[in-house]
Amino acid sequence: MGTVDLHELKVYQLAMRVGEDVWSVTAGWDLFSKQTVGLQWMRAADSIAAYISEGAGRSSAQEIVQFCHYALGALRQTQTWLEKAAARRLVIDSVARELLLKLETLRRQLDNYIATFEPTPSNSARDTSQDGSIHLLPLEEFFHPRTSAWHN
Question: pTM higher than 0.85 for the full model?
């Protein structure tokens, strides 16, 4: 597998954004809220990008997919802590809705990214040619062009 510049991966960029958003929400909480909900939520949110990063550093598609599945687990955990924070009125409704939308978008991006490594008959990221060979969509579909903010 070739080396991937993480900062060009849309899924990684959004995962990083989610982590920063959770940090912004929890930074002003009282100590009890930070130590109970905030710390768990922050760890889960930051783990999404960390798992994507670790997977991208692996040499086989199987390992990349494994770490992407770990990222999906961290994403689900992030959603759970968001629901708990909202239920405890630690997050205003509009912020909770925005974060849930980002998490759902991120889940779809991760699913699609994983699909590029797992060719199956139901794989929407592939196309079968007339000779029956499988053609995966190029990884470039999952990249953003470089921006100077990431490379300073």
Answer: no
